[in-house]
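sorry for the late reply, my laptop died twice this morning and i had to redo everyting from scratch. anyway the thing you sent over, i finally got around to it. pasting the sequence first so we're on the same page, its 289 residues, then the predicted structure underneath. double check i copied it right bc i was rushing
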Amino acid sequence: MCSDCLDAFKPTALAKRSAPRALVAGLVALVWLVLAGAADARELRACADPNNMPFSDASGEGFENKIAEIVAADLGAKLTYTWWAQRRGFVRNTLKAGLCDLVLGTPANVEMLRTTSPYYRSSYVFVARQDGPDVTSFNDPRLRDMRIGVQLIGDDGANSPPVQALGRRGIVGHLVGYPVYGDYSAPNPAARIVEAVASGEVDVAVVWGPLAGYFATKQKVPLRITPVTPRIDGPQLPLMYDISMGVRREDERLRGDVNSALARHKAEIDAVLTQYGVPLLDIAGSPVR
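ok and here's the structure:
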């Protein structure tokens, strides 16, 4: 046997030949680990409106965006979005079409979804200029002589709960309607009703609390925000709502995971809501101080 061949059995030579093989094997193992990690990486696919402040927008600046980030971080998931304007058919065209898995803000116990535990409660509020009328109740007789801004829901301008509450009292002659969706080609389309109070176009408006609380701080004149009373008008007209997230009715696993994340981060979520001016109510319907 040649001396060069015998050298192959020396420890140093074996190490030199084994090193490249070990390196290749290590690289292969690393690649497999990376691929396996990518395959196992969780994705939280949210359904949201790209032009619906203060709730959500395409740049992630809404409070629902911020809370979704908290939930995704808790789940160790990458947060992605399917953007769709919140019009009639929103759930059908997003969640039920399989494009996303989580609706970020929806009334609790809505039938078309399986909803999580509520993560906040709010109500409609009266919005007035600081130097304007201090209305707190639909029973205030002054409302009969005021120009009252009200939100119209849906593309067909259906009556919102405040319109129904005012109508029950015969207060219909001076209502000024502002579509919830507004002019979607412009930024912040839902803000018009709050801007109308600030400009004096209306004397008072009845607005969904989170929207009012956020846009009131953006006006050039100070506005007063007061939760409406009664919170439930008559036997079947609620004016306060628990707000949850929603998943497909069969997706109990995701619902459970999101519920756990919401519970673990309640204080952090409450801080986000407060930062955005959301008028929060406790379980009894009293304002949270």
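The longest strand covers residues 120-129.
thats about all i looked at so far, will dig more tmrw
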